[in-house]
Amino acid sequence: MHHNSKKLDTDQLEQMLGGVNKTQVAPIVEELFRDFSERRAILAAAIQDRDYKSCRIQAHSLKSLSQTFGFEALNQLARKLEEACRNNDDRDIEQIAQGVFDLMGASKEALTLYLAEKGR
Q1: Among 34, 33, 58, 11, which residue's Cα sits nearest to residue 108?
Q2: Where are residues bearing Phosphohistidine located in the sequence (predicted)?
Q3: I need a labelling partner for 38 at 20 to 30 A (CA). Which of 10, 28, 103, 104 fits?
């Protein structure tokens, strides 16, 4: 099942949260959102500094993290950002990064809404 136009793969999310006690979900999500904020700041700084190695590493980590939580669209765009950083493609990096930043916010919103609907 997908939620909010493929921003959130709820099957993947439920698989990840399957063994998690209901009281542990909020701290996990809070840590995820903190990670998103930190990663966004690091990515933005790396792009501004044209540090594409750091950008690629952050995009790779974001790709893995988004896959774990079922953020399909974010996972796919992070994969594109990783590749653009590998190729040192200035124009693509900035455009894709903006999409990544937008999807980070939309993914957070989709997860928050889904968990609220499920009473978690």
Answers
A1: 33
A2: 60
A3: 10
